[in-house]
TrEMBL record:
It comes from the Bacteria. Residues 13-284 form the Protein kinase domain. InterPro entries: Fructo-/Ketosamine-3-kinase (IPR016477), Kinase-like_dom_sf (IPR011009), Prot_kinase_dom (IPR000719). This is Protein kinase domain-containing protein. Keywords: Kinase, Transferase.
Length: 284
C-alpha cells in the first residue's frame, strides 16, 4: 500500500495511519511533508461509483460557497480498490459557538437553489444502498417514488416487512401532500447525522460524506434529530435564517421514516418498530 499511496501525493510521504471509518470504507490519515490527507478505500465497490458520488457531492456543496467541505484531490481505482483522496481536517469537539456556526451555514446551504425541480443530475448512495435522484416537479412525488417506495420494496425483499402491510401509494401520496404542501427545492446534505460534520480546530464547520440532492430543507433537520447530538444553538441559528415549516414536527417523523427504513435494510429488524410506528401514525 505504501508504494501506491506514495504515488498519489505530490510530496514526500511520511506516515500512513489507520483511522476509524464508516460502514463502507477503510480510512487512513496520510501524513506528508507539508500537509496531511485523508484516504478512503473500499474493496466492495471497485467500479468506484460510491466514491465518485461522494466526490460529486462534496464539489457541489463547495461550489455553493455556503459551507466548507474537504477538498477533493483524487478519486479513482487501483487494482481491486476504489479510493478517494481528500483534504484532512483536524477537528475538535463542538461547542455552542461552533454549533451556532454550523446551523447558520447549513441554512445558507439550504437557501442555495438554482432549480425548480427536486432531485439531482446523478444517482448516489445512502450508506451502501443506491439512492435514486430522478428529477420531479413535485416534492411529495419525489419523496414517495425515489425514497420511500424503493426502501419499502427492499425491506420486503429482505423479509423485513410484510408487503400487505405497506400502505398503498395513493394513501402515502395523499398524506404526504397534505402535510408537505408546496415547498422550494434546497440543496441538501442528505445524510446529516452527528458523524457527518466536523469542527475544524479553528472553529469552522465542515460537512462530510454527503448524499446530496435538491429536496425539502426539513429533511436534513429531521436526520439531525434522529440520533441526536446537535445543540439547541444549532437549531436556533438555523431558524434565524430559514423559517420552520408549519408542520415541522410531523415532517420530522415523516422524513425520519426514510432513514429508519434505510437502517432497517442495512442493519436489520431492530429498526422495524420505530419505522412501523410512523407508518401507523400517519398513513393508516
Amino acid at each position: 500500500m505504501y508504494t501506491w499511496v506514495k504515488n498519489l501525493i505530490p510530496e514526500t510521504l511520511i506516515h500512513i495511519k489507520p483511522l476509524s471509518g464508516g460502514d463502507t470504507a477503510k480510512v487512513f490519515k496520510i501524513e506528508a511533508k507539508n500537509k496531511s490527507y485523508l484516504l478512503k478505500t473500499n474493496q466492495l465497490y471497485p467500479t468506484n461509483d460510491l466514491f465518485s458520488s461522494e466526490a460529486i457531492g462534496l464539489e457541489t456543496i463547495r461550489k455553493s460557497n455556503t459551507i466548507n467541505v474537504p477538498k477533493v484531490f483524487k478519486v479513482g481505482t487501483k487494482d481491486n480498490l476504489s479510493y478517494l483522496l481528500l483534504e484532512y481536517i483536524p477537528s475538535k469537539p463542538p461547542n455552542a459557538k461552533s454549533f451556532k456556526k454550523l446551523g447558520h451555514k447549513l441554512a445558507l446551504l439550504h437557501k442555495h437553489t438554482s432549480f425548480t425541480k427536486f432531485g439531482f443530475d446523478s444517482n448516489n448512495f445512502i450508506g451502501s444502498l443506491p439512492q435514486r435522484n430522478c428529477w420531479s416537479k413535485d416534492w411529495s412525488t419525489f419523496y414517495l417514488t425515489q425514497r420511500l417506495i424503493p426502501q419499502f420494496k427492499l425491506a420486503v425483499e429482505n423479509k423485513l416487512w410484510d408487503k400487505h402491510k405497506i400502505p398503498s401509494e395513493t394513501i402515502l401520496y395523499k398524506q404526504l401532500n397534505a402535510l408537505i404542501g408546496d415547498v422550494t427545492p434546497s440543496l441538501l446534505h442528505g445524510d446529516l447525522w452527528n458523524g457527518n460534520y466536523l469542527i475544524h480546530h479553528n472553529g469552522t464547520p465542515y460537512l462530510i460524506d454527503p448524499s446530496i440532492h435538491y429536496g425539502h430543507n426539513e429533511v436534513d433537520l429531521a436526520m439531525t434529530k434522529l440520533f441526536g447530538g446537535f445543540d439547541n444553538s444549532f437549531y436556533e441559528a438555523y431558524y434565524e435564517v430559514v423559517a420552520p415549516h408549519e408542520n415541522k414536527n410531523a415532517l420530522t417523523e415523516i422524513y425520519q421514516l426514510y432513514y429508519l427504513l434505510v437502517h432497517l435494510n442495512l442493519f436489520g429488524k431492530s429498526y422495524f418498530d420505530s419505522a412501523n410506528t410512523i407508518v401507523k401514525r400517519y398513513f393508516n
